[in-house]
Amino acid sequence: MNPVQLREALITGAPVFGTLIVSPSPRWPEVVATCGLDFVFIDTEHIAIDRAQLSWMCQTYRALGLPPIVRISSPDPYLATMALDGGAAGIVAPYVESPAEVRTLRGAVKMRPVKGRKLGRLLAGEPPEPALSGLFKKSAEENLLFINIESLPAIEALDTILAEPGIDALQIGPHDLSCSLGSPECYDSTEFLDACGTIFKKARAAGVGAGIHFWGTPEDAIRFQELGANLIIHSADISLFQKHLRLEIAAIKCGAGIASANNRVVDFPIV
What we know:
By secondary structure, the chain is of the alpha/beta class. 48% of the residues lie in helices and 15% in strands. The chain contains 13 helices and 8 strands. It has an 8-stranded parallel β-barrel, surrounded by 8 helices. It is globular, with a radius of gyration of 19 Å. The two termini are 27 Å apart.
């Protein structure tokens, strides 16, 4: 799948599937490419990945037909441009709560490489020159803009956020959202699931993708699809490694008659 195809799937409501990639190992992409994914999610908000590593990862996954979607560390248009320059197929802007933030991100993602006062005038409604219109059309199709919805104020502003053009998908940050709702990590609560359903429903009604990054079970992912999500980012390489290695080591020890001295379960935190 290329970025144009991913964008088309998102806005038409077709289901697309990805996972969070933490490891920058050069052996990792060829393995990930065999897992039936449509794209990969790379997080630079919470994961320590430097600019050179990020660019290498983006270029490699793109070459394998897995568009890399990069979450930047803040809703900053300059960080968005930097990620795209490194090879990202799209960006995820974290903790967006206003249409003004979306507007500046749209300028960085969909109207590259125009900046400064000219970009300000264009975002304010000034029509672009014909040659620029063609460039913007190509940029809008090939560079994806995901907006993280992670708070109650974002939900309250959702209609005005979605009124801004250029959004390809809304993506829920479940940990932050649950905290903003006052019920940290209560992912089975009616309040949390209702909030997810509202976000998904409004996104799809606006013709943009609706999704979530969640690290639970396949059944959890199916539940979010039933609530209206068509963008599923399931778990992470490090979480899946931890889960399966822990189970297999426990099975090996059991076969050897060894009881584990430490049954403490510490899941890799994903937010």
